[in-house]
Design a protein that fits this description.
Two copies of one chain form a homodimer. Chain A contains six helices and five strands, in the order H-H-H-H-E-E-E-E-H-E-H. Chain A is an alpha+beta fold. In chain A, helix 2 packs across helix 3 and helix 3 packs across helix 4. The longest helix of chain A has 13 residues. Chain A starts with 5 loop residues before the first helix and ends with a helix. Chains A and B meet through strand 1, helix 5, strand 5 and helix 6 of A and helix 5, strand 5 and helix 6 of B. Chain A binds a DNA duplex (25 and 25 nucleotides) through helix 4.
Amino acid sequence: MSRLQTQAVETMVGENGLKMTPQRRIIVEYLQSAVNHPTADEVFNAVNEKFPMTSRATVYNTLNWLKGNGLVCEVFEGGVVRYDPNTSNHHHFVCRKCGKVEDVGAELVGAFQLEQAVSLLGSQKVENFEITIRGLCAACHVIDS
Amino acid sequence: MSRLQTQAVETMVGENGLKMTPQRRIIVEYLQSAVNHPTADEVFNAVNEKFPMTSRATVYNTLNWLKGNGLVCEVFEGGVVRYDPNTSNHHHFVCRKCGKVEDVGAELVGAFQLEQAVSLLGSQKVENFEITIRGLCAACHVIDS
DNA sequence: TTGATTGCAAACGGTTTGCATGGGA
DNA sequence: TCCCATGCAAACCGTTTGCAATCAA
């Protein structure tokens, strides 16, 4: 379970002659604290509450930069790009009603392993896999019943 | 393994007072013949080769109409929406190099079943799941090695 | 005939880009 | 000081919408 680390960001900055700006700091902090998987727009809004006048361009720049360095990963759900500060191997649960995306730890999915994915296929080279489980989240399930 | 059927489309049309236009026919034919998972733009281009002057609006209308009636399903890969004429329960293999999306039959994935997905989670209501396997497709694997 | 469907073009929403200004190192 | 990063606005791209003309039933 490796989450976006402040130190990893600092290291990345130090090694490449890049700069640690207040905007970047706040975007990283927000992603670290996010329990869900925020969209770029949610990041933009959250960051602007703490640091008004941060532009969308900066938010997108920073998200792309983090992504390019493997510090966050993108997930597409419901036609929306979301950012996931959890970069370890894991899976997702998506609520079909509220659209929430929850993490499912890879350690829980013992039944399906990479070797099995490999054996399913022929001449392809399998590198990794992810499972997306769909249904109703706890909250929506209660409302529904 | 249920693929988009001409008859299912005709039935859908007949039951709802809708019309079977040449454009719709060609879009359906193209999707049926597609081995990969075409994007809206690929559908647009393919259709225009056979039936010039078909507008993007019509392509999008038709795709959304097929989707709304469960005759095709959407998959998001690499930030692009793709249309899949295979509506049966199945999984995907995505090539990280060329971006190709291949189907993996659900019958092949014996190791991970819905009951297991359910048992992984707590108060959520699990309805279905899909597995996305990533790596290099046969063609790219050959080039790479 | 009639209303669903089409083509066109404009609108839309999310993301990127160009450029002058500003601010870390 | 240097040049990376920012804010702004315009551009961009995929998709949707409004509307008058068209055409399948």
